[in-house]
Write a structure and sequence with these properties.
about 70 residues, alpha/beta, 3 helices, disordered C terminus
Length: about 70
Amino acid sequence: MTTASLYQRIACLSTEAVEVLYALEAEDYVVGISGYTTRPARARDEKPQGQWFFFCTDRPHSGSQA
């Protein structure tokens, strides 16, 4: 198993993480970026931005309330 196969979706909560993933040409794994991201400039056009991210999984979140 390769490391790349372990990670399918990444939400970047820091601007530095966005820069690193784009530099590694791993932008296809990025599903969301911080609203403060400015570099690389194309990331703001390609990815959803926000301060909070919610993830959809096939398992309910342990903190969810029914």
